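Memo to structure team: turn this sequence into structure tokens by end of day. - J.P.
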Amino acid sequence: MTAPPPAPVRDPAWPLSRSAIGLWTTQGVISTVVYVLALAAFFVFVPGDAGTPVTLVRWLGPVLVVVHGALAIGVRPRLRYRVHRWEVTDEAVFTLTGWLTRTWTLVPISRIQTVDVTRGVLQGLFGLSTVLVLTASSQGTVRMPHLETDVARRVADDLARRAELVRDEAT
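Reply from structure team:
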């Protein structure tokens, strides 16, 4: 008789900061504005009687920009918030990401080499930061994006301290 397969791994406990929705919405607005400007430039610089492909772009372009805007501003930020999760336990750091393809990443505390906190310009406007937990493996980086800055700092400090303790115990 063979042993039963292990129970499925549970989802990480913590969602990203709710401010991430505002950040992603802002990014959606910016990308939509860029597409609108590109389409406007097309309308200004390409004559309307240039042929069938141009006519197709003149009709289809605005429709695609509106669809992109609706998805990037109205749907994607809330969907991303629902599917991205993270957690730090006594033994490991793990994240769950992805919409269609779900990626569950786990890094044992003993494998942590570096813990970084980064903050982009837009993240700064929303009071968010990203914690990067790096290992020696090229596939071992765990990203915990869009955490509140004070939470990110506490998590990074805690992980760095615990990783150092594990390394000291191993020597």
